[in-house]
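Methods — Computational structure assignment.
A single polypeptide chain was analysed. Its primary sequence is given first, followed by the predicted tertiary structure written as structure tokens.
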Amino acid sequence: MNKKFARLTVICAAAGMMLLSGCGKNDSSNAGTTVDNSGNASQVAEVADAKIGENAFIITLYPEYAPITCENFEKLVKEGFYDGLTFHRIVDGFMAQGGDPDGTGAGGSDQEIKGEFSSNGVDNKLSHTDGVVSMARSQAPDSASSQFFICYGNQSFLDGNYAAFGKVTEGMNVVESFTTVERKMNGMGEAAVPMTPVVMEKVTMLEDDSDGNPRVQVIMKDFPLKK
């Protein structure tokens, strides 16, 4: 197997069916808690002293749950790593996955990081609910590098097996609009591969929110938005 492919992220073919051995729905003791971002969108917009554009969204990072993951993500953002990369896998009702420099799901950055989730010995209580951002990985628990995914709806069955580290706190409608792009089937039988590239034009750090959490702005290249 290609070494790069061994690091790639293959999370789930569809909600409820895991492609990785030993993964599945967790019981209530593993489910974790959801971060309450009620009212947070207006707060972060005020801190930024500007409103984001209609083709952009903001990810708030939560180092209290996954410090290594947040540090790695912030490092890549500051290096401009994500500029021009795509969301290569978009699955209705499940998630949008991106951050692969190869655009195939088989690539990543040079550095792999520790998987910050309970099955890997880390007490990460951030649940995979709507808009939550998490790291994709291979079967190896410490194989995540640059690829990440954003949840559509409640995917809490992923809790304990993937490192959730942030949440889309503004512009989730833009992320949801990815599903309006025509897609073809991938090797897992999902209608997931965009026929028109869904491109992150510019990804930058913003000022921290009012609670001191780092924030990332993702500006997308133009494509039709869901009304």
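Note: The CA atoms of residues 42 and 223 lie 25 Å apart.
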